[in-house]
Design goal:
Length: about 260
C-alpha cells in the first residue's frame, strides 16, 4: 500500500479527479506547510498535477502509484483547478510549479536553506542557474547538474547532492521522467524536499516564455504553449478527452449528491 500524505493530515483532505489524487490547498497554504516541513529531515516529495498528468496516470500504473505516494501534489493548471471545483465544490487558485519554485527560492534565500538544481540540457542548466543567482543573490546554491547523465553516473550525482547538505532539490527532467527519477532515488537522498519542476529551468534560462496573465486567467495556457511549441500536440491530445471525462464525473457527483 502507498504511504499516506505526511504533511497535511490536519489541514486538507486529499481529493481525486478521475481517480488521480491532488491536494486541495491554496498557494499560501502549500507554502506554509512546506516551510513547516523543512524542520523535518525526512525526504519529502513535491509533484505537480495537471490535466495531461491525470490522463497519463490513468494508464501508467507506476506514475499513478508515485503520485499517490507523494507528500505534496499541487494543482498546476486548469485541469485540477476546474475539476476540484466541478466535482468536489472546492474553489482554489492554482499553484503553478514555477510559481511555487520561485517562492521556495525566495524562502531559501531568506532562511539560508541550501538548494541543488538538477536537470535540463547543459546550456539551459547553466543559464538558469546564472539567472537564479542574479535574481536571488543571497541564495545558497550548493550544486547544479544538467540532466544528461547516464545511469552509471547516478550514484555519483546522489553522493554529490548528499555531501552538499542539500535542503531542497529541484528536478527538471520533464514528466514522467522526473517523477520516476525522484521516486526511484528518494530513499537514497538526504534532502528535505525533492520537487519536480518540469520545464521551469527553460523559463528561468529565457528559452521558454510564460503565457501572459490574461491567457492564464482564462485557463488557456495549454493553448499558448501549444502555439509556441507545436511538438506538444501529441501530449496535449488528451486534454479534450480529459474535459469530457471530468464533466461526466462532475455530473455524476452532483446527481449522486442530489439523490442522497
Amino acid at each position: 500500500m502507498p504511504s499516506q500524505p505526511t504533511l497535511f493530515p490536519m489541514r486538507a483532505e486529499r481529493k481525486t479527479i478521475l481517480g488521480v489524487p491532488v491536494d486541495a490547498l491554496q498557494p499560501e497554504e502549500f507554502l506554509e506547510a512546506i516551510e513547516a516541513g523543512l524542520e523535518d529531515s525526512h525526504t519529502k516529495t513535491i509533484l505537480a498535477v495537471n490535466a495531461e498528468k491525470i490522463m497519463f496516470a490513468r494508464k501508467d500504473k507506476e506514475l499513478f502509484e508515485i503520485l499517490n505516494d507523494s507528500d505534496v501534489l499541487i494543482p498546476d493548471g486548469f485541469g485540477p483547478v476546474v475539476g476540484l471545483n466541478f466535482i468536489h465544490g472546492v474553489k482554489l487558485t492554482r499553484t503553478t510549479g514555477i510559481g511555487l519554485m520561485e517562492k521556495l527560492l525566495d524562502l531559501s534565500a531568506e532562511k539560508k536553506f541550501r538548494v541543488f538544481i538538477y536537470g535540463a540540457k547543459p546550456d539551459i542548466n547553466k543559464m538558469a542557474v546564472g539567472k537564479i543567482k542574479a535574481e536571488y543573490p543571497a541564495l545558497n546554491i550548493v550544486g547544479a547538474q544538467h540532466g544528461y547523465l547516464s545511469e552509471e553516473e547516478m550514484d555519483g550525482l546522489i553522493r554529490h547532492i548528499n555531501v552538499s547538505n542539500t535542503d531542497i532539490l529541484f528536478v527538471g527532467l520533464g514528466s514522467p521522467l522526473q517523477e520516476k527519477w525522484i521516486h526511484r532515488h528518494k530513499d537514497s537522498l538526504k534532502v528535505k524536499y525533492c520537487m519536480g519542476v518540469g520545464g521551469s529551468l527553460d523559463v528561468f534560462a529565457g528559452n521558454v516564455s510564460l503565457a501572459p496573465a490574461w491567457i492564464s486567467n482564462l485557463y488557456l495556457e495549454w493553448a499558448y504553449r501549444l502555439v509556441k511549441q507545436p511538438s506538444r500536440i501529441q501530449r496535449q491530445k488528451v486534454i479534450p478527452l480529459f474535459i469530457l471525462k471530468m464533466l461526466k464525473e462532475a455530473l455524476a457527483s452532483r446527481f449522486s449528491n442530489e439523490t442522497d
